[in-house]
């Protein structure tokens, strides 16, 4: 069960409780689920009971128990526990790995895209980047993230873009430059007080010598309030470089598809271990990371934090690496259903990595 599916399941439980008269509240438009905080347990948690307690006129613990009774046994949820003042914690495990993989392969690089931000801010989100290379790249990526969640976005810069920003960094703003620069007349209808200013901490040096992919990663990897490091560490081909790990993992996923085709088999979603065996812990970590991708995209867009996506891609890359040795048959071994399922899981991971890098404006090569 993905976070989006879990959110819908919780929302359905709230609606049922209202319809059956156990809660007297307005049903929220959506319910947020996230990894549990300190004191929590399981895979995900929600604070919806605390949010509904006051309008319901009931203690949060009572609201949580009402919802818990409706969530126990729901498809894809193996355990529901109430902790603290009323947090509802979930352990997911009822969804077969094949179902998640099929969903990723069906959606392709658009897996995780949604409509959570559709219609916000009067229908249009307006980003206005400072005339600084890091701000311009952040504005470009924030526009991609917001659009991935259904928002209509206009993005501009307070001054003309440098040619290197347009060409080498691939920045293409869809509004003319502002503040008296050519094309400003087209912006006369915009209320600048409602613009979202994009002003991350500037880079200490010119990132353009790093090239497009490494420069963008260097500017996006730290949180906006942290100063980026601009150096050759972003170019080295070793594990210490997070960008290399992400692109290497993607290239290995693609390479496994080619290798498997040479052996006469392809990806087929299913159980990655024989029926009588349990999935190893490493596989569970990868499945959770893939299932969490929609939530990460939504959070990165809502909080204007592309670094969240960058760090998630590193987590996916690190989680898929232990899978690689078990994907292809060894020696005289014949391809089995488990081999096909592991290959499908690797393809799903590669798809998430490619989609995430695309949103960051970074290439995902098939060969590295």
Automatic annotation (TrEMBL):
Top-level taxonomic group: Bacteria
Molecular function via GO: arginine-tRNA ligase activity; ATP binding
Residue ranges occupied by any Arginyl tRNA synthetase N-terminal domain in the UniProt entry: 4-92
SUPFAM superfamilies in UniProt: Anticodon-binding domain of a subclass of class I aminoacyl-tRNA synthetases, Arginyl-tRNA synthetase (ArgRS), N-terminal 'additional' domain
GO biological process: arginyl-tRNA aminoacylation
Domain DALR anticodon binding stretches: 246-368
SMART domains: Arg_tRNA_synt_N, DALR_1
Family matches, as Gene3D superfamilies: Arginyl tRNA synthetase N-terminal domain (3.30.1360.70), Isoleucyl-tRNA Synthetase, Domain 1 (1.10.730.10)
A Pfam family assignment: Arg_tRNA_synt_N
Catalyzed reaction equations: tRNA(Arg) + L-arginine + ATP = L-arginyl-tRNA(Arg) + AMP + diphosphate
UniProt keywords, alphabetically: ATP-binding, Ligase, Nucleotide-binding
GO cellular component: cytoplasm
NCBIfam families listed in its UniProt record: ArgS_rel_codon (NF045898)
Name the UniProt record assigns to this protein: arginine--tRNA ligase
Organism, scientific name: Streptomyces pilosus
């Amino acid at each position: 069960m993905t976070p989006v599916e879990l959110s819908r399941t919780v929302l359905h439980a709230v609606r049922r409780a209202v319809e059956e008269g156990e809660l007297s509240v307005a049903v929220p438009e959506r319910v947020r689920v996230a990894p549990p905080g300190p004191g929590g347990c399981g895979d995900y948690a929600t604070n919806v009971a605390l949010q509904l307690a006051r309008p319901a006129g009931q203690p949060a613990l009572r609201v949580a128990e009402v919802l818990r009774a409706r969530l126990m046994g729901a498809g894809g949820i193996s355990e529901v526990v109430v902790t603290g003042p009323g947090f509802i914690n979930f352990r997911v495990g009822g969804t077969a790995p094949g179902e998640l993989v099929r969903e990723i392969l069906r959606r392709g690089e658009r897996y995780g895209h949604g409509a959570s931000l559709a219609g916000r801010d009067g229908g249009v989100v307006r980003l206005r980047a400072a005339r600084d290379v890091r701000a311009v790249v952040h504005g470009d990526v924030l526009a991609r993230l917001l659009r991935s969640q259904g928002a209509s976005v206009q993005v501009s810069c307070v001054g003309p873009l440098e040619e290197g920003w347009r060409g080498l960094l691939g920045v293409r703003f869809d509004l003319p430059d502002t503040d008296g620069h050519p094309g400003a007349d087209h912006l006369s209808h915009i209320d600048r007080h409602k613009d979202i200013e994009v002003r991350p901490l500037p880079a200490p040096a010119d990132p353009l010598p790093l090239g497009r992919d490494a420069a963008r990663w260097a500017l996006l990897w730290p949180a906006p309030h942290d100063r980026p490091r601009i150096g050759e560490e972003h170019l080295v081909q070793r594990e210490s470089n997070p960008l290399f790990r992400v692109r290497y993992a993607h290239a290995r996923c693609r390479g496994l598809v080619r290798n498997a085709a040479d052996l006469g088999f392809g990806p087929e979603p299913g159980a990655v271990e024989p029926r009588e065996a349990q999935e190893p812990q490493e596989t569970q970590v990868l499945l959770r990371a893939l299932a969490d991708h929609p939530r990460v995209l939504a959070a990165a867009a809502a909080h204007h934090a592309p670094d969240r996506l960058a760090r998630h891609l590193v987590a996916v890359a690190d989680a898929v690496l232990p899978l690689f040795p078990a994907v292809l048959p060894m020696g005289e071994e014949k391809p089995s259903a488990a081999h096909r399922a592991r290959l499908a899981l690797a393809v799903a991971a590669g798809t998430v990595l490619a989609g995430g890098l695309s949103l960051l404006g970074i290439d995902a090569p098939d060969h590295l």
